[in-house]
């Protein structure tokens, strides 16, 4: 299959752009561009199936002036006319990264695959490296015309002062133009504000919205940060901000300024509180699982006694019944104080490490790859990710032969391959962590000097999984000698699966 495609004669499209002479006239170089591109194609035995050109367009109105040649070129690409696009320089084809992105996307749904320039540069739009190189090239070209970016900045400032929409993703509550309101979403925003003013936690609101299956503006599930970003955005009171300045917007306000100011304060308060909570870190999150439902446990701080009665915060690992979207997650049946679990697991981990033969064995097991290998793995992983995207898009655009079963089968294969690479990458990075412990150093000393991330790495290096079984009534007492602390804790309810 692959060889058949490689052997087939490639069809090429040529695109040229006439540049403007300093005096204002139009230079004749567009003809040379055509000759050069055709010579390049002939050298490589490509069949030129079309050649398009446009007059250069002054930068200041480049967003508005149509490019008929470019549009015709796009049409040709969409109708699978060619595999290669040839130009003298990338900057002749694309003036903005956005335009390049359109072609990159087309490369996954049409026969187009390569963009080539006559200096011999080949951009393979179906590989991560090719895409990255192309985007970098367009970026550079755009950057070099600094007068242009100055003009854009000026235009942005002018737009802001006039209260116009800066463009980009569709804001929730409005159509893509950023001005026309969407009645259903306006109702949701007003409801969110009302619930906040009623004192409901953001998490609760997130759960309610997701249960109703009304997605956000980009079709995703709600998260606390999404709700907060809507509530704190001045857009919903009809204000356009730019560099800290407020301007009356051209779009209508959808809640009153008074309600918005109040709701914004409430939400910001809440985020400050959760920010503090997050600062308390947990050694075992990611490695520790619920013994009932097998879901990952989360680190959770709670007050066994209310703060008003002098309660102290208590760190714990618990099975959570809802995830960040407020949707069903775990069984909620397991919660254990974090301190004894961490002390117990640490003790066993360090004991295992302190055998010199064992340490040497895993050091060797992990140190089988070099730096170059790591970047090769990462690139390979990116290629698989793009392929998965490509397959999904082919299915979405109903490409012939791509039915649901086929798509899922191919995707599964790709995902398995991707996972295998992830495992290699993980092995590689843990190997570096281990190498950071000086050979011969006492692992207990290393542990004392290590920060939380390094400790975490040392644990995941040899621990596959920690499972917390639900507690039994009649709890045991456990004494931790090194710190001389006693806990109500049963070590037998903690299972450790070792990698080594
Ligand atoms: Zn559970």
Walkthrough of the structure:
With 500 residues, this protein is of the alpha/beta class. It folds into 3 domains: 2-158, Resolvase, N-terminal catalytic domain (Rossmann fold); 183-277, Alpha-Beta Complex (Hect, E3 ligase catalytic domain fold), CATH 3.90.1750.20; 337-498, no CATH class. Helices cover 48% and strands 14% of the residues. It contains 17 helices and 15 strands. The chain has a 5-stranded mixed β-sheet, with helices on both faces. A 3-stranded mixed β-sheet has the order 8-12-15. A 3-stranded antiparallel β-sheet has the order 9-10-11. α5 packs antiparallel against α6, α14 (371-396) packs antiparallel against α15 (404-435) and α15 (404-435) packs across α17. Residues 1-7, 22-26, 59-64 and 271-279 have low confidence and may be disordered. Bound molecules: zinc ion. Zinc ion (ZN) binds next to loops.
Quick recap of the structure?
The protein is an alpha/beta fold and 500 residues long. The protein is 48% helix and 14% strand.
């Amino acid at each position: 299959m692959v060889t058949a495609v490689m052997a087939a004669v490639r069809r090429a499209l040529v695109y040229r752009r006439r540049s403007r002479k300093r005096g204002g006239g139009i230079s004749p170089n567009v003809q040379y561009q055509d000759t050069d591109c055709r010579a390049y194609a002939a050298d490589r035995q490509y069949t030129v199936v079309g050649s398009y050109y446009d007059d250069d367009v002054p930068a200041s109105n480049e967003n508005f002036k149509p490019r008929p040649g470019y549009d015709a070129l796009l049409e040709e690409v969409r109708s699978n006319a060619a595999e290669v696009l040839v130009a003298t320089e990338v900057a002749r084809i694309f003036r903005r990264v956005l335009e390049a992105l359109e072609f990159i996307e087309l490369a996954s749904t049409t026969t187009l695959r390569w963009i080539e320039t006559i200096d011999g540069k080949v951009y393979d739009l179906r590989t991560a490296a090719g895409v990255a190189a192309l985007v970098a090239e367009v970026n550079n070209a755009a950057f070099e015309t600094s007068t242009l970016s100055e003009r854009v900045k000026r235009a942005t400032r002018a737009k802001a002062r006039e209260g116009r929409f800066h463009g980009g993703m569709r804001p929730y509550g409005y159509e893509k133009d950023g001005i026309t309101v969407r009645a259903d979403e306006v109702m949701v925003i007003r409801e969110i504000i009302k619930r906040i003013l009623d004192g409901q936690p953001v998490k609760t609101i997130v759960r309610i919205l997701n249960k109703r299956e009304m997605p956000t503006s980009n079709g995703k599930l709600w998260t606390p940060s999404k709700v907060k970003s809507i509530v704190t955005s001045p857009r919903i009171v009809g204000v356009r901000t730019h560099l800290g300045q407020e301007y009356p917007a051209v779009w209508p306000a959808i809640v009153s300024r008074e309600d918005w100011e109040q709701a914004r304060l409430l939400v910001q308060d809440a985020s400050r509180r959760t920010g503090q909570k997050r600062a308390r870190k947990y050694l075992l999150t990611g490695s520790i699982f619920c013994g009932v439902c097998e879901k990952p446990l989360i680190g959770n701080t709670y007050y066994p006694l209310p703060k008003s009665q002098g309660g102290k915060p208590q760190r714990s690992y618990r099975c959570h019944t809802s995830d960040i979207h407020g949707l069903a997650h775990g069984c909620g049946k397991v919660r254990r104080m974090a301190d004894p679990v961490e002390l117990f697991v640490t003790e066993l981990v360090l004991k295992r490490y302190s055998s010199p033969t064992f340490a040497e064995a895993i050091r060797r097991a992990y140190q089988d790859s070099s730096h170059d290998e790591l970047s090769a793995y990462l690139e390979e992983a990116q290629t698989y990710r793009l392929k998965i995207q490509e397959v999904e898009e082919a299915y979405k655009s109903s490409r012939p032969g791509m039915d649901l079963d086929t798509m899922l089968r191919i995707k599964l294969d790709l995902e398995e391959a991707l996972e295998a690479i992830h495992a290699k990458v993980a092995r590689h990075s843990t190997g570096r962590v281990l190498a950071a412990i000086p050979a011969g150093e006492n692992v207990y000393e290393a542990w004392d000097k290590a920060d939380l991330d390094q400790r975490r790495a040392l644990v995941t290096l040899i621990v596959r999984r920690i499972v917390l079984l639900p507690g039994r009534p009649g709890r045991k007492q456990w004494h931790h000698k090194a710190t001389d602390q006693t806990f109500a804790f049963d070590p037998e309810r903690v299972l450790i699966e070792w990698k080594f």
